Description:
Layout: E1 2-6, H1 10-23, E2 34-38, E3 49-58, H2 61-68, E4 89-94, E5 112-115, H3 131-134, E6 170-173, E7 177-179, H4 186-190, H5 192-204, E8 212-216, H6 220-232, E9 237-241, H7 245-253, E10 258-260, H8 262-273, E11 277-278, E12 281-282, E13 286-291, H9 296-304, E14 306-314, H10 326-330, E15 334-337, E16 343-346, E17 349-352, H11 353-364, E18 370-374, H12 379-387, E19 396-399, E20 409-410, H13 429-436
Amino acid sequence: MKALVFERSIPRIAASRLATLAAGSGRGVSMAPLRLTDIETPRLPGEGWVEVAPLLSGICGSDLSLLDGTGSRHFEPYMSFPFVPGHEIVGTLSSAGGVAIPGRSPLQDGERVVVEPVLQCAARGLDPKCESCAAGDTGLCLSTTHGHIEPGLMTGYCKSTGGGWSAAPLVAHASQLHAIPAGMDDTDAVIVEPAACAVHGALLAKVQEGENVAVVGAGTLGLLTIAAVRELTPVGSILAGAKYPHQKRFAVELGADEAGGREELARAVRRKSHSHLVGGDVVSGADVVFDCVASRGSILQSLSLLRPRGRLVLVGMPARMSLDFPSVWHRELSITGSYTYGVEDVPRGRVRTFELAIELAGRLKLGRLVTAAYPLERYEEAVMHAATAGSRGAVKIVFNPQARPSRPARSGGNMAAGRDKAGAGSSGGSLHAEVAAIVPGKGEVR
């Protein structure tokens, strides 16, 4: 069966990086060491492992940095080559054999699941678990290069498991699987993994009653962070930085009080905090800023928006960069990285982040953020679309690995303005209907 496979080739990575630096993200995909080829289903590594046939799999910002050749080499020891990318996955089970998820009945073949991609101690067959996994912080597992599978922080970067950009099944451990409600659309389900990242970041910030929050960036992760902060914290106001009209409308729809460009965001923060500028920084400012881009420019912008002793949460994945840090020292700012997920402390107790994300995605119909789905054979177009999503009126681009090569389904780009806290999905109805047509069993890509 066909799959996209990423190989370790320094010359090709360098070539894709040069193309990216010259022409922009996505332009180097034809030079990157990614190829469409036939693969076999990976072998089951041991007890508790099952096969999952991908239905939809997203293209993440971390995937783009990999293909652009701009990602940090920090992650290289945590990968095993060659691997099939794709860690945002909804699929159907095969070879389940009654494998059980704690707290529910055994899984059955044909059941739909989302994959929690972190390859933690349980998946690696390690007992006792490391201290992070024992505490439920599986995203911080200390053993991602050990056990009975190859090194890999998560599915989609590990040679042993396969990944979501594949028509062939991948393999996953029962500890990674979450059944999705029968009425949940596949487009809602494919958003669960990035939604879990947003949920973790939102709760990691420990937003207090009535605090003012700014969110920098309104791509997929920024919009999901807005939704998570609004739904799961006692936030006062949310001010969002959004460049394009469709991003501004989605930001307000998902919970932002105001959304605008860089200068508009700065003015909104000054108004809310009754502040003035000294140099480029506000004297007061937001209590918390979520940076969902994590470029040099966005981090500098985020720091400039914070009040003294404010908190910056890096939800986006930063690359190597140089920054001028006097404001952090002078204003006693806190910077926290937010990586993946695990378990969260919420009023009803300790709950796995993915369970909260499934609830959020279903309640708010977050599949409306899925703009287009491509067959694997058109991966260069898909990557280019993902890399230029904002300027093209798009949000989330995904693969439909079971589809035949043809035209992708995509949105018409029309949304209603205003917040829809009930998540009725009215604003994204046409988008959702068009993308739903590409889900296997519901029609073909046209």
